[in-house]
Amino acid sequence: MFSYTVIYVEDDIATQKIFAKVLSNYFENVIVFTDGEEALNAVKTSTFDLLVTDINLPNISGLDLASEVKKRNPFIPVIIISAHSDYDVLSQVIEVGVDGYILKPISSQKFINKILQTMEKINFIKQSHYNENLLRQYKEAIDRSSIVSKTDSQGKITYVNDSFCAISGYTKDELLGQAHNLVRHSDMPSSSFKNMWETIQSKKPWSGIIKNRKKDGSAYYVKSLVNPILNAKNDIEEYIAIRADITELEMYKQNLEDKLQESVEEIIETQKEIIYTVGNIGEKRSQETGLHVKRVAHYSYLLARLYGLSEKEAELIQYASPMHDIGKIGIPDAVLNKPGPLDDNEWKIIKEHSTLGYEMLKSSKRELLQTAAIIAHEHHERYDGKGYPQGLKGEDIHIYGRILAITDVYDALGNDRVYKKKWKLDKILELFKEVRGTQFDPHLTDLFLENIDEFEKLKRELL
């Protein structure tokens, strides 16, 4: 039975009883009328999915009733039952746009066949409306959380959202019809855009970090994904670009590089301060407090010393660890702060933060930032090789990544997050015992479990 509502209008009581019963076998709600005017009032005030009406009715004809339905919503199917087969009547039926015309006398089987044919149209309409609503919501979600533009196949801008205008300083009228080089910064090498254009013209998506120029001449940075949209013939119809603003992060990076020109001691202290601050930016975007990076830093130092690393190397891990999730700054808020479970595509996006963090840090020649790059890249690898982003296994995972894998999860489980409540200690310890040698380095796990009192003491001191 279909959970749809049908309005059935028939003034012949005997016929009405027969076919109202037939309709009730297929539809959850059947509303029956004998009078055309009463049916018209229902059409104007009720929500329904199908109209079945005799053509000859008291007060108002079935054709007038059908015409009113089609004026209000042309997508609602209408079936007319009639004893007339002359040209004038048929031409009126066609003009109104009815979806089915059944000539009397009619059999139950003929009636059922026509209803089932019409059901296909109802289902198609329902699915189309559902898909249309989903697409609208998806577009609204992307528009709210990202900087979006579309261009035609020649690269001319055909659409920009409000976020694009806000960050660039241009109005929509100033942007539409222009090429994207209107916002291109002179610092960006032409080879980058050549590579982008060649990639998307080969019908493949392109992603990367771009430095752009605002209308006032100042710079801004975006992590961009440019995707070609193909038509039914598999030809490129247009391109859509979705971006995340990472200007704040890039400014911090530049500030860091400037400060590295100072004395060695001052450089090290400045690095510590900026790394902690930038680490906090990533945590704030995912609605975490700065205490998370602080706790993970201290836990990582302790575990490194228990493992036997030198004081210098343990401090290096401690000072670099706040950057472990810095790549989250390039993840859209709608995905990063989603309160419920992530779908496959959202999970794929969230996993990009490891690679993004590495890309942000890998070019530095400073030991502290090189350490931070390793930690950002490998702290989600698993000992059994089932982690990401590289699928490294065992001791192929850098010791820094293996240490952070444990301390990050320990702190995450022991504190509230946007998507979960904190776990009790006995449940955390039970998990670590279960995943020893699969998710985590077995030796490091043993050291952690054997010294859990020291970690718990640190947690209390850092609350």
Instruction: Specify the helix fraction band.
Output: 40-55%
Number of helical regions: 20
**Gap from first CA to last CA:** 59 Å
What is the β-strand count? 10
Tags for this model:
Beta-Lactamase; Rossmann fold; five-stranded parallel sheet; 20 helices; alpha/beta; 3 domains; 463 residues; Hypothetical protein af1432; elongated; five-stranded antiparallel sheet; 10 strands
Q: What does it look like?
A:
The protein has 3 domains: 2-141, 3-Layer(aba) Sandwich (Rossmann fold); 146-245, Beta-Lactamase (2-Layer Sandwich); 249-462, Hypothetical protein af1432. The chain is built from 20 helices and 10 strands. The strands form 2 sheets. Strands 2-1-3-4-5 form a 5-stranded parallel sheet, with helices on both faces. α9 runs antiparallel to α10 (264-285) and α15 (352-361) runs antiparallel to α16. A hairpin with a 4-residue loop joins β6 and β7 (157-160). Helices cover 53% and strands 15% of the residues. It has helices at residues 13-24, 36-45, 62-72, 87-96, 108-145, 162-168, 172-175, 190-201, 247-259, 264-285, 290-307, 311-320, 333-336, 344-350, 352-361, 367-378, 399-413, 425-434, 442-450, 452-462; strands at 2-9, 27-33, 50-54, 78-82, 100-103, 147-152, 157-160, 206-213, 219-230, 236-245. With 463 residues, it is α/β, with parallel strands linked by helices.
